[in-house]
Amino acid sequence: MAGILAWFWNERFWLPHNVTWADLQSTEEAAFPQAEDLYLAFPLAFCIFMIRLLFERFIAKPCALGLKVQANGPQKAQPNAILEKVFTAITKHPDEKRLEGLSKQLDWDVRSIQRWFRQRRNQEKPSTLTKFCESMWRFTFYLYIFTYGVRFLKKTPWLWNTRQCWNGYPYQPLMPDLHYYYIVELSFYWSLMFSQFIDIKRKDFGIMFTHHIVTVTLITFSYVTNLTRVGTLTLCLHDAADVVLEAAKMANYCKCQKLSDLLFLTFAIVFIVSRLGIYPLWILNATLFELYEALGNFPALWVFNVLLVILQILHCFWSYLIIKAAYKAISKGKVAKDDRSDIESSSDEEETVPRSKTPHSTITTNGTGSSNGTNGYLTGGTCSEEY
């Protein structure tokens, strides 16, 4: 294992020329980032997850009930052994041929069977109360860590001049505030990576998981190699839009439509300006050009830049979705549907009693009889992140 670690952390790969790991060893005069510090992220990630559970139960839930957020989940489908067997063992989305066969077997019209499958899929989805509590937790954390980051960075010289990120490298002492900022952010993203498997499932699960992996990798490698100054800029920039996004979702769950629309449009502006404007002109310019000019070329430089460019590609994808949703909201004067909806909805959702099959009903239910989507915005999940 020691040989594998020595091979992996080859200083000729990770560090610029004329810089060694010995240069990054802490001394009595100054402390520098150490790889061992990152082990703190795992127990802290568990603590953050436990704090989240307590927060959602004892703070977010009472707030949601006080705001009259709907506590009940989606309407449950009436028990039916035959349809339940098809749903669990064969398919959750029966095709037209199977629908017609079930219609003859049960003497139900096709539309009623479609409605049953839609309700059965929906009843496994989380309630609005659950989604509100998750958003309130993320809003609280993002607001705290973004505020902390701004307060820390406004006192640093590299916020105003990114060339200061490389000035004096590698002899850039690790400040306690920077160490705390890095470890808390890393712990939070580790907790997101694991909780994503038990959280509300989104349609962009794979994309968000990729985002979390890239983020954790960047935080880890930039800390070990003491490229933390540009890392703090990247972290703070990404947290800005997430605060507004979670606020918009909470307003949506509370049915404060005008406030939700306003917050979503604000989020769209902040996201696009920060991710498509400031990020490439500020962060990518610093790592692609200024870092090369200051420290020269070394292999890890391209690893960092490839990961940062992957983030930019995700930003472009999410920006496209956000712009499309904002255009719908403005042009139609109402909330756009969320293509990543948690609940399928239909104008006839309230009807639960299946109608007997008649020639008229068979003719009128050749279509799907439903429309996908719920209240919500088509958002990137930063991002979340994410209705």
TrEMBL record:
Name the record gives this protein: Ceramide synthase 6
Residue stretches making up the Homeobox domain: 83-127
Q: For this UniProt entry, which segments traverse the membrane?
A: 38-55, 179-198, 262-282, 302-323
Q: Which GO terms are recorded in the biological process aspect for this UniProt protein? A: ceramide biosynthetic process
Give the pathway annotation: Lipid metabolism; sphingolipid metabolism; Sphingolipid metabolism
Q: Which part of the chain is the TLC domain?
A: 130-331
State the InterPro entries in the record: HD, Homeodomain-like_sf, Lag1/Lac1-like, TLC-dom
Please give the chief subcellular localization of this protein. Answer: endoplasmic reticulum
SMART domains registered for this protein in UniProt:
TLC
Task: Report membrane topology.
Answer: Multi-pass membrane protein
Question: Where is this gene product found?
Answer: Endoplasmic reticulum membrane; Nucleus
According to the record, the residues making up region (Disordered) are: 341-387
State the Gene3D superfamilies in the record.
Answer: Homeodomain-like
Annotated DNA-binding ranges?
85-128
Which GO cellular component terms, listed alphabetically, does the Swiss-Prot or TrEMBL entry include?
Answer: endoplasmic reticulum membrane; nucleus
The source's domain of life comes to Eukaryota
Keyword Lipid metabolism on this protein? yes
Q: A Pfam family matched by this chain, by name?
A: TRAM_LAG1_CLN8
Start-end of Low complexity biased regions: 361-387
